[in-house]
């Protein structure tokens, strides 16, 4: 009986066992980070895009957009100089294409009006209108509702 009351030492105490468990968990976490987890390198562009997405979802931005909708940055403000120049070129090309199409259409209309003589249209016979037949209503099959039966 005297031996049961004798202290066994620090190695057998609960504190030592908890400390060993924490050290093992820490070492397993370090091993996971160095060995198992892949280190994906994110490019700068992806980081910037991610930050912009997070900023758009920020609560203050959402409230600010609600209160002051006109203060949103326009797409033109976010473009660089090269992108702005390319956008201007595209707009100029579209405008020139529209102008040339209008000029060609005007010329063709003038040519058609000069060349063609108005021919009186023949009297049209009245075309009888046929009213479409109403489609038959779809038939719906009635299904009995399930019944609850008590088991004995």
Q: Count the strands?
A: 0
Radius of gyration: 41 Å
Low-confidence stretches: none
Judged by helices, strands and strand pairing, the structural class is mainly alpha
**3D shape:** flat
Head-to-tail CA distance between termini: 62 Å
Give a written overview of the molecule.
- The chain has 152 residues and is an all-alpha fold.
- The mean pLDDT is 78.
- The radius of gyration is 41 Å and the shape is flat.
- It has helices spanning 14-36, 44-56, 59-67, 75-78, 81-115.
- It is 55% helix and 0% strand.
Strand and helix layout:
Blueprint: H1 14-36, H2 44-56, H3 59-67, H4 75-78, H5 81-115
What distinguishing features does this structure have?
5 helices; flat; 152 residues
Brief summary of the model shown:
The protein has 152 residues and is mostly helical. It has helices at 14-36, 44-56, 59-67, 75-78, 81-115. Helices cover 55% and strands 0% of the residues.
């Amino acid at each position: 009986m005297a031996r049961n009351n004798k202290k066994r030492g620090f190695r057998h105490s609960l504190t030592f066992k908890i400390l060993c468990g924490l050290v093992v968990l820490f070492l397993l976490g370090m091993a996971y980070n160095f060995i198992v987890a892949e280190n994906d390198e994110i490019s700068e562009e992806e980081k910037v895009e991610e930050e912009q997405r997070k900023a758009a979802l920020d609560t203050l931005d959402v409230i600010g957009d609600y209160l002051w909708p006109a203060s949103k940055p326009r797409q033109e403000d976010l473009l660089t100089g090269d992108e702005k120049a390319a956008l201007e070129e595209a707009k100029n090309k579209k405008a020139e294409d529209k102008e040339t199409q209008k000029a060609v259409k005007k010329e063709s209309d003038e040519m058609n009006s000069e060349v063609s003589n108005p021919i009186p249209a023949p009297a049209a016979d009245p075309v009888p209108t046929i009213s479409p037949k109403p489609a038959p209503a779809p038939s719906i099959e009635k299904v009995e509702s399930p019944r609850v039966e008590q088991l004995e």
